[in-house]
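Handout, page 2. Input:
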Amino acid sequence: MKLSKAIENLEDKGYLDISLDTKIDYIEAINTLRKEKNAVILAHYYQRPEIQDIADFVGDSLALAQKAAETTADMIVFAGVHFMAETAKILNPTKKVVLPDLKAGCSLADSCPPSDFEAFVKQHPNHIVVSYVNTSAEIKALTDIVCTSSNAEKIINSIPKDQPIIFAPDRNLGAYLMEKTGREMLLWDGACLVHEAFSIDKILNLYQENPDAEIIAHPESQAHILKVAKYIGSTAGLLNYVKTSMAKKFIVATEAGILHKMQKEAPDKILIAAPAKEDNCNCSECAFMKLNTLEKLYLCMKYELPNVEIEESLRKKAVKSINRMLEISK
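Output:
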């Protein structure tokens, strides 16, 4: 009865709301289910630390897409946000793909409504469309090549110089790529709430207090943040930089979840999350990413819900742009 009621409320809640034994050992239970169901747990760097620690693989959007494309598991458990699980399903139509909480969305993906974007693309028919992976399946179906922050520069450089480009949906990443590649691009006006929340004044004050620190930033951040950064890179790039840099202290301007993996892989480094403009908010954390919990992860593996499904004609259109990205990224 509890399960049927939870399934009935799934669309409204976003997850299976089932009360569980308080003595349950979630780590042991998840490990058992992983073996029983031949499941792979993929987690993004922005997930809660306990979810990163139990995952089979933790990575940025590019690495997660690559892992999803090559997995031999029967079930993909995506500890991330909705567009990531959708991407995994697009690449694996015959596999079960589950997401702990369907309401784990993305402010950047939300900033690009499909009907508006389709009209925009139609207004510029001679442009090739490059879209960031942080988009819905509908946007990917309107896209020629998907990219991530790890491979965006490579993908833009692979396009003939006389070919006009639409870049969507992140205006900050788009502006950064225009500067890096020297290409003029038509930018969609979208952004990530977390990367727009950093305070330049507070970061500079923090730097004055820690002059031995290096400011490092994700290219989704605003231009004035990128101007003061010693290094700009994807989440995987930022992690690698912290591990290999001679500096001992870093002010990190991206979602604060990355600090867990950074500290594990570079335990001798001092890491400071870049502060947000608002004093009383966790704006450097993505509220969507933090919706997933060990309890929800266990429930979605046990009952194989919520699962992500994509209509086949949409999937076939969307997979072309992802495959082009994977091919260029080899």
